[in-house]
Amino acid sequence: MLHAVLLIVQVVSGVCVVALVLLQHGQGADAGAGFGAGASGTVFGARGASTALSRATAIFAAIFMLNSVALTYLSTRAHEQPKTILDLAGQAAGAKAPVAGAPQGPAGKPAGPAQTPPK
Questions:
Q1: pLDDT higher for 65 or 117?
Q2: How far, in Å, CA of 35 to CA of 40, rounded?
Q3: Shortest CA distance to 25 belongs to which of 37, 12, 7?
Q4: Can you list the positions of beta strands (E) in 4-110?
Q5: Where are the domains positioned within the chain?
Q6: Dihedral angle computed from the Cα positions of residues 105, 111, 114 and 119, in that order, rounded to the nearest 10 degrees
Q7: Helix, strand or coil for residue 41?
């Protein structure tokens, strides 16, 4: 569950970083705006857009990096390994414990009608 939530946050933050970088002006746009070319007085003002977009980009980049570290930690965390062969046998799919008091055949399997132990 946590892994799925972190993956969603990773994708959303990555898309936001890409979108914010594409929205920002390039280095050549400042020179043109200085001579009156282009729309220097946009929605955020002449300087406000770069500051707001730069700050938002930095925040989403930090979220992306921290989330990457969290996903790496979750994926490399050691899963609990069985300590003995009995632990491994107990984890096997469909493994059933023998009934107490039932006669046992070879390899710990319940004895069938042909394998009844001598009395």
A1: 65
A2: 10
A3: 37
A4: none
A5: 2-25+45-76
A6: 80
A7: coil
pLDDT in tens, 56-95: 999 999 999 999 999 999 888 866 666 677 777 776 655 5
Comparing C-alpha atoms, which of 13, 6, 11, 8 is closest to residue 71?
A: 6
Dihedral in degrees, nearest 10, Cα atoms 52, 53, 56, 62: -130
Nearest to 14 by CA among 72, 52, 67: 67
pLDDT for 64:
96
Distance, CA of 9 to CA of 100 (rounded, Å): 51
Burial annotation 88-111 (CB, 10 A radius, 16+ → b, else e): eeeeeeeeeeeeeeeeeeeeeeee
Question: Is the Cβ–Cβ distance between 35 and 22 less than 8 Å?
Answer: no
Beta bridge partners of residue 104, listed in sequence order: 110
**Mean of the per-residue pLDDT values for the chain?**
74
